[in-house]
Amino acid sequence: MVKPIESLDDALARCQHLGMRLSRQRRYILELLWQAQEHLSAREIYDRLNQTGKGIGHTSVYQNLEALSSQGIIECIERAEGRLYGNVSDPHSHVNCVDTNQILDVVVQLPEDLLREVERRTGTVITDYRIEFFARRQPAAAQTGSADADDFR
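^ that's the sequence the OP posted. Answer follows.
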């Protein structure tokens, strides 16, 4: 079983394990995605890297994002507006804010009886799952729950 990618160091190690070249540009992209508190478009990645003096071309950004996402080192989320990229952590689901277009990573565990019911109805064995939620932001006064309610990522 392959060790999950839980950190920037894990992502770099996975690249090396797969024989991927760890170019300066690839490192910049991985560092940014592990520092970012949100999912980013290729354009946002390009802009942020160039604004911080880490010169990188559009083509290099796109090629590296494709290579990293195709190997499962980073996450690629298909949206109507285009692709968004983020770091890969433990298996998780997404809450898509329809007001801000932001994505919040959230770990959701479904009750075992629900999973067994889905298996029974479909004749399959569930090995993993991800849920896509679509939501609107609550007014600050109405928010209850975890301290991470504002941490859209």
